[in-house]
Every structure is written in C-alpha cells, then in structure tokens.
Design brief:
The structure is a homodimer of 383-residue chains. Chain A has 383 residues and is α/β, with parallel strands linked by helices. Chain A has one domain (2-374): Rossmann fold, CATH 3.40.50. Chain A has twelve helices and 14 strands. A seven-stranded parallel β-sheet of chain A has the order 3-2-1-4-5-8-12, with helices on both faces. Chain A has a three-stranded mixed β-sheet with strand order 9-11-13. A two-stranded antiparallel ribbon of chain A has the order 6-7. In chain A, β6 and β7 form a beta hairpin. Chain A is globular, with a radius of gyration of 20 Å. Chain A starts with a strand and ends in an 18-residue tail after the last helix. At the A-B interface, α6, β6, β7 and α7 of A face α6, β6, β7 and α7 of B. Chains A, B: Residues 3-291 form the NAD-dependent epimerase/dehydratase domain. Chains A, B: It comes from Stenomitos frigidus ULC18. Chains A, B: InterPro entries: Epimerase_deHydtase, NAD(P)-bd_dom_sf.
C-alpha cells in the first residue's frame, strides 16, 4: 500500500515515514520545509542536528534498500498537490503538514492568520483533491487533544451522546481550543467531517496528545537519520523540554501551578498509532476520531519525574513555577478516553525511568547546542 | 453611540444601517462592494434595482438630515481596517461583512477557500484590531442558525448543559454545519469565543435564521433607498425566492421532500434584534449567543403559504418538488430556542398574509427584471 506522509520532514512525520517504510509500506514524503524556515525566522534550532531530507533519504536507502519518494512543495498550492497525488497515487494520506505550535500562532495577528489559513486551506485542498480523483483514499489527519480543552466532564473520542429534554442524539464533542493553533485544528475537524458526510470520503482524525521521546527503532539507526528535538519556548513541548532543561542545568519551567493535565504518548506509539489507523481504514463517509495518547499527566508531575530521574544520574535539577504565558485552567478535572486505538491493538510504551534516562542522555550529549536565551517563553496569550 | 456596520451595502446591512441612523445612532458603513462584484461574476442581479451606495447615502441625508460615513475597503486588509477604526472610533461594530451564500461556497474549491479565508480572516482581523485599540467595543457578529444543523435534540442558544457519567458542564453547543459557508461561521464562532476568553473582549453572536421581506420603514422611504431582493439559485433564499417565482409564473421550487425546517424572521426584526444587542451589550469577556429568528417553518409549508397567497391575488402558483441540490435531512426533528432576544423586548413581526401580499406585489412590480435562467439551482453538494 502506498502512503503519502505530508509533513514528513517534521518530528512526527519523519519518524512515521521511516516506520511505515520499514514495515513494508511504499512511502512518499511531501514537505515544503517551512518548519525549518520558521526555525530560521525565530532563530531557534532543534537540539539534535538534523540532516537535509535528501541526505536523510539517501542514507535510509543505503541502510535498508528502501526508497522513499520526495515531493517538495506546499499543499496550499492546489496545482502542486494535485500533481503529486496523480503521480504517487496514494492509498492513504497521513497529514502532519500543518503549523503545529500554539505559541507560534499566538505571536501576533500575522502568525495567527498564517496558522489558520495555512492549516485550513491545506486541508481543504486535500479534501477537494481527494474528492476529485481519489475518493477512496483514506485520510489520516493529525488533530490534537487540545481541541477539547478542559471540560468538567469526561472527554469521549470525537462524539458524545447527549440526552436533553427527553430526547437523545450523538453529536460532535464540544470543542474549547486554547490557542489560534488549536482553533485551526477544530476548524479542520469540522471541515473534514463535512467532506466525509457529503462526498463519502473516509477519514481518521487522530487527536494526539503531547508527544515525547526522540528515538524510534528507525531514526536511531544512524546519526544522519536522527529526529528533531525542540526545547525552545515556541516549538518545545513539556517533557522533552524539561529533559533538556535538566541537562543544561536550567530550572524546569512549569507554567503557573502546574496542575494542567494533558494526554501524553511516546513517539514510538505515535508511529504505531498511525499504522493502526492505516491498516484498518475508516469506512466510506465515516469521520472517525481516535484520541491518541497513552497516559495522563499533570505538567507539575512530569517536572517532578524528570527532576527525580535527573538527580539519579547526578544532575542538579530545580523545578521552577514561572508565570503562565498562556490562559488556561491550572487546576481542573481531566479524564479523556483513549480506547479506540487500544482496541485496534496498540501496546503502549508507558513513560518509564529508562525512557527518561535515554532522553536525559540525549540532551546531555547535545547540550552544547542549547541556546539558553530561547528556553523561556516569550509569547503571551494576554493582551 | 457610534456604530460601524461592516457590510452595510448588503441586504441586512443596509436595512440595519438606516434603521440605526434613524434611531439616533451615529452610523458608519464599511463595505468593499464585493457582493455586487459577485453578482457580476455570476451574472445575477437583485430583483429590485439598487442604487450605488454613495447615491443611497446622499438621498438618506437629503431626506433625514442624517449623515452616514462611508469607508470603502476590505477588512481582510488589516491596515485599512485599523485605520477606519481609529478614524471612526466605534462603540459597537455590527459585522455583516462576510460571504453569506451556502451555494456560492459550494461552487468549487476556489469558492470554498475564498469563503472560508475571507470570512475567517476578516473576523480575525477585527478581533485583533479590537484587542489592540478598542477592547471595550462591542462586537455584534452575524452568525447563522445553520451552524447547528439539525440535531435530534432541542437547540439551545450557543451553549448546552451536559450531564455525563455523573458530572456536569455547560459547553458550546455542538455544531453540524451543512456547507462550506456554514462551516466558516462555525470557525468564526470558535475564534470569537476564544478572543473574548483571553482578551476580555465582548461579543454577541447572532445566529440568524432565514430573513424574508424587503421593506423596512427606512428603505421604503424612497426608490433610491430600496433594498436588494435576491431570487437566483445562489443568493436567493426561501420565501423571498418563492414570492418572486410566484410573480413570474415559475413553479415554486421546493428542494426534495420539503420537510427541511428552519428558523425564519422578517427583515424588520433583523434590524430590531441588532439594535437590542447593541443597546444591552455583552459583558467584558462574554461571548453571548442569541438565536435570531421568530418562527419555525418547513420549506414545504412556506411554499404552500405562498401558493395560497398568490392564488388569492389571482396568480397561478404551482409547487414543484425538485431534486435537492444540497445534502441535508429532508424530514427531521427541529426545535430551537429563541428566548434571549424576546427577553430583551423583541416584538416579532410574524409571517402574515399581508407580508406575503406586500412581497408578491413587490415581485410583480419588478418581474420584468427577472432572468428565469437563474432561478433553478445549479450548484450541487454531491461529488
């Protein structure tokens, strides 16, 4: 089966492309490299030195004999996208190709508009291209657990059955996204749902939690295949960021009270979840939603775990509660379901001290590359 | 109080601008005339001959002594929008300035992207401009009842209290929009809700039903003030369209079974609802939602009423069930709440035989301007 990975040069996309290639899928990567461009714009860099994608793909071929096709361009350019689809003829499309940072989207008006237009138009283009020529292709779209916000009731997977005034219906789960970026994902979800309904397309929305870790079996095969690892205030996410902070002796920056609870997963589960979604596609007309995480943690708990793991290997680690740049509940109920992927056979890599050790070692290995001026958050939600 | 009416050259916007001006508000109109441009693109025209806005405003001044400021430009141009706001300094902004036709948005990919980008970016620009310089200004935004779709439970006003697994929360009402246009309004609602939450802006989302009628006290004062009346397959809406079909001897085109039930209101109530929203603004940080309609009708019922009214004045009227170009439920439960505006004092103009007579007379007066080739729907939802 042919799988096109849009955004295959990014953190999740790269790991996914290699994993699927290794598993026997015929993989193509479509990427515009705009993520690398944004690094330049913000003057930030992945902790790990990542090679140009052409070199990455060459090395992958040399090591495994497997070829991954590369299509360089932007899916907001419909003519380009349509041409690629006709050339590659995918059976499934994995869509990571969006601006994925909440702080980036909150920098200013321009970045908010860029994020929403880029993400919404790219996905609309994809839906129209599929409708026109590949209506049976399965769209596997990366959403985010952040679409749900932090409601005071259990979070179901995409839909909720509501009884109201003696009647009953199963409706899309209400969304309370917390940034211009998260909003763009909510817009996407509504658009994709509609396209499935009227055109009979098949789609799976993977509402992913916060991904941690850097190694997968494939990206660990060679230094040239190494994955990116972001620690800066814009693209860095909790846990990965904490480990790097610990490695360089920077206090772990917990925003506010630290009671913010989120879904998390190991990047080795990200790639497996995508494969599970591909292997059992949604039905024609179905907009299927999976909550893609394996465990719930509060940010404060994570920091404590990293502090403990760091101390065990001799690092001095301090946890610092800093002013929260975001506007979000810092103490709240959070209970989200994630049974759909488990039912398909996902066997989670739960967060362990060995994973933390590995991440801390990675961070220590590359700590000379850290720019400490980029660690603290500069983008604020408040006006 | 100064009120800026964005989209004040359109059907609802024009009637609203004059009504508010008459009621003593200091009114400015911001409009790009892109609606007139789309008429040209599609080669359709309002049944009633509308004058250029400059002439309209001059006549309004001549008749009433009141001046309405005019700002010609597009709110997707942030620099222009920001300049206008600083010049006019509105206390409230009424935002009608969006692409508002479902069939237009469904013509093809380009029109879908145009609709979503135009509507979402225009509204984002407005939110950022308010945040930067007018955080206390009240945004009165036109949404649509079509955001809700046709759930099998009662439709509340914007929010619903859900009990689930023994817990309870009040969440945004789930949305099931039925076109790329309706989706754009759902995107707007989420964006505005977020802006209120994080920046403390105040906004009222008017989820308006299908508007009918052409006369208001103000637009009826003079031929030069006449409002637009659309009957074509793209911009024409039920009831107005039926009356014009009746006038020219065209069968009333009911799409499918005709059991599609929607909220409706007289344009004289539209203008009053907007004033009620302005007069009692939302609180800082509040995203307030009003369902703006006065009665529920099925499309089939409306056609029967027009047929009856037409026959009474000697027209031969046939009701024809045509293939439904849309994908929507044609028989369904529909019960929407609309008490918020009634509680503020709205006294509805319910649909009456005299209103139908007036509309039929209007249609008859201008029937020589009808282009019958534009009546049937050409845009289809199905792929």
């Amino acid at each position: 089966m042919k799988v096109l990975v849009i955004g295959g040069d990014g953190y999740c996309g790269w790991a996914t492309a290699l994993y699927l290639s290794k598993r026997g899928y015929e993989v193509g990567i479509l990427d515009s490299f705009v993520r690398r461009h944004w690094d330049l714009e913000l003057c930030v860099e992945t902790l790990t030195p990542i090679a140009p994608i052409q070199q990455r793909l060459q090395r992958w071929h040399d090591l495994t004999g497997k070829t991954i096709d590369l299509f360089v361009g932007d899916i907001t350019n419909y003519a380009f996208l349509d041409k690629v689809l006709h050339q590659f003829e995918p059976g499934a499309i994995v869509h990571f190709g969006e601006q994925r940072s909440a702080p980036f989207s909150m920098i200013d008006r321009e970045h908010a508009v860029l994020t929403q237009v880029n993400n919404v138009v790219g996905t609309l283009n994809l839906l129209y291209a599929m409708k026109e020529s590949f209506p049976d292709c399965h769209l596997v779209k990366l959403g985010t657990m952040g679409e749900y916000g932090t409601p005071n009731i259990d979070i179901e997977e995409g839909y909720i059955t509501i009884e109201h005034n003696g009647r009953k219906d199963t409706l899309p789960y209400p969304k309370q996204p917390g940034s211009m970026y998260h909003l763009s994902k909510v817009h996407d979800s509504h658009n994709i749902h509609f396209a499935c309904k009227i055109w009979g397309l098949r789609a799976t929305d993977l509402n992913q939690g916060v991904v941690y870790g850097v190694l997968t079996d494939e990206t660990g095969m060679d230094e040239l295949l190494i994955n990116r690892l972001d620690y800066d205030g814009v693209f860095g996410t909790a846990l990965n960021r904490f480990c790097i902070q610990a490695a360089v002796g920077h206090p772990l920056t917990v925003y506010g009270k630290g009671g913010q609870t989120r879904g998390f997963l190991d990047i080795r589960d990200t790639v497996r979840c995508v494969e599970l979604a591909i292997a059992t596609p949604a039905n024609p007309g179905e907009f299927r939603v999976f909550n893609q995480f394996t465990e719930l943690f509060s940010v404060g708990d994570l920091a404590d775990m990293v502090a403990k793991a760091g101390s065990a290997i001799g690092l001095k680690v301090e946890v610092q509660h800093t002013e929260n740049p975001r506007i979000e509940r810092e103490e709240h109920y959070f209970n989200a379901k994630n049974t759909n992927l488990l039912d398909l056979g996902l066997q989670p890599h739960y967060l362990s001290s060995s994973l933390l050790d590995s991440l801390l070692n990675f961070a220590t290995k590359y700590k000379d590359r850290v720019d400490e001026s980029q660690i603290l958050p500069k983008v604020k939600w408040r006006r």
